[in-house]
Specification:
Porin_dom_sf; OprO/OprP family phosphate-selective porin; globular; 6% helix; two-stranded antiparallel ribbon; 3 helices; Porin_O/P
Length: 391
Amino acid sequence: MKTQVRSILALAVAAAIAPAAHAEIAIDVINGSEISLEGLMQADGNWYHNDRADLNAASPPGRDGADTEFDMRRSEVILKGKGGRFDWTLGFDGKANKWLDANIKWKLGTNYVMAGQYKQPNSLEELTSTRHNDFISKAMVTNLFGVARRTGVAYGDDKTNWGYNISYFGRELTRNLAQGPGFGGRVYWAPVLQPGNVFHLGLSAVDFDADQVGAPDSSRLRVRPDADLATTRLIDTGNIANADRQRTFGVEAAWIGGPFKVQSEYMRSRVSRTTSAPDFTGDSWYVYGVWNLTGETWGYKAGLPTTNLPDEPSSGMWQLGVRYDATDLNDGVIKGGEEKNVTLGVNWYYRSNFKFMLNYVKINSDKYLASAGREVSDDPSIVEARAQFYW
């Protein structure tokens, strides 16, 4: 696998020398619907400086416990149809072996009805296109409480500077992944909306049945330390038995001022229980800033910041970013732990189809260990790199 990934990285670098391709491949027009093909490939490398726990422990099979790890992160192919009253999407990730967006949208002016599998309306960072995430790993709050893709039915409206979405959902389309029926909604407003000058606010909520695959009526909250390839979680509630429902509320904000962007989210989640055992409540948040060194700004569409192409394709767009995110999974007798991370990043968008990322993550975590009879700190650091090709 490591040899394969190194080859992919080399090919990506070599391909960067070639002329830029189109953002998507047009296939045909059928009954007024423009059919196109999109794709995304990401190859990651992680270098761990462990403190106590082995962040690359030999699980799942194939991991050797070494301080470095290389792997494909995503290998996505997406077929889309746009035009007329209906848009549709069908996507699959060959790396994860799972369905992505697989839905049809009926457009009613700015309103729409959508059915199938789609991202649920409760996370600004999760709803943003993965190819344009500002850091290699999404923040802990997103990975913990972002419901992501589920099958369901949604109704929404996207005006110029405000909109909303309400959704009823079930399990993921791919079996043996996330499940538990529920509902959610998100509303956003941009009181300032001008080219290069945007202020965004949003509220969201989801409520769903706590039902893990293979462990019905239970919930477990845990998160990787801002490293997608890590196999160890430093904070983990363990299984919360007799769980009934999980309810998450979120607030979000973003500001764009020319080449600068600041973004933040806070989510608080409660797991209610069917017995006299107390409910569990945890929370998480982040704030980050990104600076386009080459002067580009961002766009804004349907309640989400959008990343522009480089002004000068031959030299590309350079970005610097810094993020602070924190999570608290301690509540009463459940000692899931606390974690606070600082991430420094540099991104290079080259031409229309390539992106290279480098992150440094410093972690500070504390978790109660029964064997020690006290809270124990674990403060590792990680260097992460990503090569990305998309069209």
